[in-house]
Design goal:
single chain, rod-shaped
Length: about 110
């Protein structure tokens, strides 16, 4: 009977060790799956963030272009006005400015 008890205890210990080893292996596998899932979630989050960043930048670019367009048009029309000033008016302005300079500084 003592031998049978020892064998039963030994068998129970072996079964317990097997169960512990199996639990450790399952734990490692679960940890690997969790790491893999975490990396997948991280990559998806980064991709989503990059896409959102690109969308925000594109929206900002478009908004900037829309705001700049009327300013550029107005500036372009002002440039055209300046470029199309009658030469007679330019000559008249030159005479007025040089006349003021000469009167102010004297004719040296």
């Amino acid at each position: 009977m003592a031998l049978e008890s020892i064998k039963a205890v030994k068998q129970a210990e072996d079964e317990a060790n097997d169960a512990i080893q199996k639990a450790l292996m399952q734990s490692k596998e679960m940890s690997k799956r969790a790491d893999s899932k975490a990396m997948e979630i991280y990559k998806n989050s980064m991709n989503t963030a990059k896409q959102e960043t690109a969308r925000i930048l594109a929206d900002a670019q478009l908004q900037g272009e829309n705001e700049a367009e009327p300013i550029l048009k107005e500036g372009g029309s002002d440039v055209e006005k300046i470029l199309n000033i009658d030469q007679a008016k330019i000559d008249e302005a030159v005479i007025l400015v040089t006349g003021r300079i000469v009167r102010k500084n004297g004719n040296n």
